[in-house]
Amino acid sequence: MKKYKYLYVDGYNVIGQRVKLSQLTHNELLEERRLLIEQLQNLSMTLADEVICVFDAYNVKSKESVEVTLGVTVVYTKEQQTADHYIEEQVGLKYNMHTTEVIVVTSDLSEQYSAFFQGAKRMSSREFNKLIQYEQKNISDIISAKKSKTPRSKIEISDEIYTKLDKLRRNITD
Predict the structure, then answer these.
(1) Which of 74, 113, 116, 150 is most buried, by the most CB atoms less than 10 A from its CB?
(2) Confidence class of residue 156 from pLDDT cuts 50, 70 and 90?
(3) CATH number assigned to the domain comprising residue 106
């Protein structure tokens, strides 16, 4: 029996592995977040049955919000809740050694240990970014291979033959 696979991604942790979060403007941070979500959407079918990307709102006054978009659940935690805490709670709720597999992506060592002790597998943000690059290259290679096998829509012929065939088509005789 195949186990149902959950993938929890600490969003800011993965972004922070790519760029320095403290140096990003608000708009750049929004763009990095959008890019990560897009990458997760593109790869969600190959990564897990359910992909959950968590962004913490620890210093932001807000209620928890959840958006489901193209195979990825995006969670913005409530005020005073870190992504780490949210993910740890969810691992405890979702993990069952017989029916589920849970993978946690973070570079936070304490979160990795916590997830591991609850039965989840762990992956660092650096490893995950490499996995994203690898999977994107694989998909590009597959698309290129499919395109190269697609028959051409036109037959390449010389101008002379084209002219003769065009005359035949129009029923023009010399």
Answers:
(1) 74
(2) confident
(3) 3.40.50
Place of tokens 């290259």: 137
Q: Does residue 142 lie in a domain region?
A: yes
Q: Establish if 164 belongs to a structural domain.
A: no
Strand partners, 75: 54, 66
Q: Is residue 154 situated within a structural domain?
A: no
Structural domains in the chain (count)? 1
64-70: Cβ within 8 A, 24+ apart: 69/37, 69/41, 70/41, 70/44
Answer whether 9's CB lies under 8 Å from 125's CB. no
Residue 60 and residue 29 in contact, taking contact as beta carbons nearer than 8 Å: no
pLDDT at 31 over 80: yes
Q: Global pTM?
A: 0.75
